[in-house]
Amino acid sequence: MDMKLKEAEVTIMKLTQERSMATKEKDKLEGEVEALKTKSAATRTIQVGFPFLYVCVVAIMSLVVGYLTHL
């Protein structure tokens, strides 16, 4: 009976250590995810208006179409 009790105590200690390690790992991963979220949010920029190249292409096409319709 005494041997089973000691074996149970050892098993409980091992499980407690594993749970503690799992909790630390979970906290570490949550911190990494939070850091990635803030890094991603900082590098993301919102573009306002039309891109310059798009405006240039539309202007050139408009000039070509206008020239061809006057002929």
Instruction: Return Rg in Å.
Output: 33 Å
Summing up helix and strand content along with how strands pair, one would put the structural category as: mainly alpha
Helix content: over 70%
How many separate domains? Answer: 1
How many strands, what sense, and barrel or not for the largest sheet?
Answer: none
Strand content: under 5%
Number of helices: 2
Count of extended strands: 0
Q: How confident overall, as mean pLDDT? A: 90
User: Cα distance, first to last residue?
Assistant: 107 Å
Shape by Cα distribution: rod-shaped
Element pattern in H and E? HH
Q: Give the low-confidence spans.
A: none
Would you summarize the structure shown here?
86% of the residues lie in helices and 0% in strands. It is mostly helical. It has one domain (2-70).
What is the strand and helix layout of this fold?
Layout (H helix, E strand, L loop, with lengths): L1 H42 L8 H19 L1
How would you sum up this structure, described in words?
There is one protein chain. This protein has one domain. It has 2 helices and no strands. The longest helix is centred in the N-terminal third of the chain and has 42 residues. Keywords: Coiled coil, Membrane, Transmembrane, Transmembrane helix. This is Vamp/synaptobrevin-associated protein 27-2.
